[in-house]
Backbone:
């Protein structure tokens, strides 16, 4: 089969399955399956796929058509300019989480805390601590997750990007004592009742442990906010990513635990997405 015919078939199969950006996806899958870049596919449309390449490409297209996320097929997702390994054990890093990472880096640089500790809670693929370890000069970085399989992926990502991160298995902050100058967390925050309505790629392929946050989505943040003062330095700050419509409840819970909101950052859709709190 010629490359142009393969791409046309792939794009049409993906269109039929309701997949976004079908032609671009077909080109990415061809690169993954047959090592033919999108540029080469366009430049040499007459190139013939051998039997193995054709079978691998068709299998990849069928997986994507059945709802498997592209990132699980190619095995990685870019975050903050770095490629992170992803498997079904971890959440695929999202663009909005870059807002959290950038604000934590800015804070670190303003207050230059040489030798102080940062901890990321609910680390998943490790995208947050890996970027912080690379960008926050002088920081010592820890990362916690309750999922041992997620931490295996995070460890590989830290090695891949030469990031010195100390990984801990545990429930929220229970296994660490600090003191931490910066605590970051993108914990599960989807209300349980909203899970059936999520896109199939998220609902069926991101781990439920990475999504479900109890009846109003704030169960994990409730527990985290109740405990965080124990591990924060006196001038430390907690950076959390939250879901749409949760900002008010989050600030109220923080205030109940002696924390004050110092910053709220919107995502590109104007939704308050990152809350920064400090001890009062
Ligand atoms: C929404 S994902 C975020 C992953 C990663 N931080 C990111 O931004 O891509 C939430 C993560 O929290 C972890 N998690 C869930 N409950 C936890 C708990 N009680 N203690 C620690 N981690 C938890 C999940 O295993 C998952 O990796």
Residues:
């Amino acid at each position: 089969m010629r490359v142009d015919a393969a791409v046309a078939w792939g794009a049409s199969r993906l269109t039929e399955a309701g997949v976004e950006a079908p032609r671009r996806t077909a080109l990415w899958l061809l690169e993954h399956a047959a090592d033919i870049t999108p540029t080469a596919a366009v430049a040499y449309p007459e190139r013939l796929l051998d039997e193995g390449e054709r079978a691998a490409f068709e299998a990849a297209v069928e997986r994507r058509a059945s709802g498997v996320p592209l990132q699980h097929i190619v095995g990685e997702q870019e975050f903050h300019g770095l490629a992170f390994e992803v498997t079904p054990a971890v959440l695929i890093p999202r663009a909005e989480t870059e807002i959290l990472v950038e604000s934590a880096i800015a804070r670190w640089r303003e207050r230059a805390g040489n030798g102080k500790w940062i901890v990321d809670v609910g680390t998943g693929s490790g995208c947050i601590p890996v970027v912080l370890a690379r960008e926050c000069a002088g920081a010592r970085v820890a990362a916690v997750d309750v999922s041992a399989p997620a931490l295996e992926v995070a460890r590989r990502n830290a090695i891949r990007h030469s990031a010195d991160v100390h990984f801990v298995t545990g429930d929220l902050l229970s296994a660490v004592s600090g003191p931490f100058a910066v605590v970051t967390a993108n914990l599960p925050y989807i209300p349980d009742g909203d899970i059936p309505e999520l896109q199939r790629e998220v609902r069926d392929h991101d781990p439920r442990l990475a999504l479900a946050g109890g009846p109003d989505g704030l169960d994990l943040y409730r527990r985290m906010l109740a405990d965080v003062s124990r591990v924060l330095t006196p001038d430390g700050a907690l950076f959390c990513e939250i879901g749409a419509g949760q900002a008010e409840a989050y600030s109220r819970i923080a205030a109940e635990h002696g924390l004050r909101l110092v910053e709220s950052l919107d995502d590109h859709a104007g939704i308050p997405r990152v809350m920064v709190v400090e001890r009062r």
Summary: The longest strand covers residues 232-241. The chain has a mean pLDDT of 96.
